Amino acid sequence: GGEELHTGDVIVREDPCHAGVVIGAAHVATTEDVTRAVAAAKTAAGPWRRTPYAERVAMLRAAREDIAQEIAYLSAVVSAETGKTRLEAVGEATEVLDMIAHYCDLMIENDGYCAPLKPSGGDTNFDVMV
């Protein structure tokens, strides 16, 4: 629901290549935290579902641009958290950009994802995702 929580035990993540160097920390979610998060997601799903696909695509493409602006930082985090080389980390981080672009393109190409299926008998069928 957009709320930051700072409760529960803290998990610390260290750089696997540099023992003792903390690169991140997070609180352990309680059952109540998860229940509230799921409820918030269900509440948000209705309005999102009713948002026309072209608007959703525009929002996702804007988010993609925001992510692209942070690709160096995100790659550094991936490298520090996993011990991957910088090249591998950049590839992993930029893959997210490719996936967003790909699925947005599919939504546009398929009119919000309404794809014709092979006809069977006299029926006309479509695969529709809303």
Automatic annotation (TrEMBL):
One of the record's GO molecular function terms: L-glutamate gamma-semialdehyde dehydrogenase activity
InterPro entries per UniProt: Ald_DH/histidinol_DH, Ald_DH_N, Aldehyde_DH_dom, Proline_metab_enzyme
Pfam families reported for this sequence: Aldedh
Keywords: NAD, Oxidoreductase
Cellular compartments per GO CC: cytoplasmic side of plasma membrane
Gene Ontology biological-process entries: L-proline catabolic process to L-glutamate
SUPFAM superfamilies named among the record's database cross-references: ALDH-like
Residues of the Aldehyde dehydrogenase domain: 14-117
Spans through the membrane: none
UniProt cross-references to PANTHER family, sorted A to Z: DELTA-1-PYRROLINE-5-CARBOXYLATE DEHYDROGENASE 1, ISOFORM A-RELATED (PTHR42862), DELTA-1-PYRROLINE-5-CARBOXYLATE DEHYDROGENASE 2, ISOFORM A-RELATED (PTHR42862:SF1)
Protein name: Aldehyde dehydrogenase family protein
Organism from which the protein derives: Aeromicrobium phragmitis
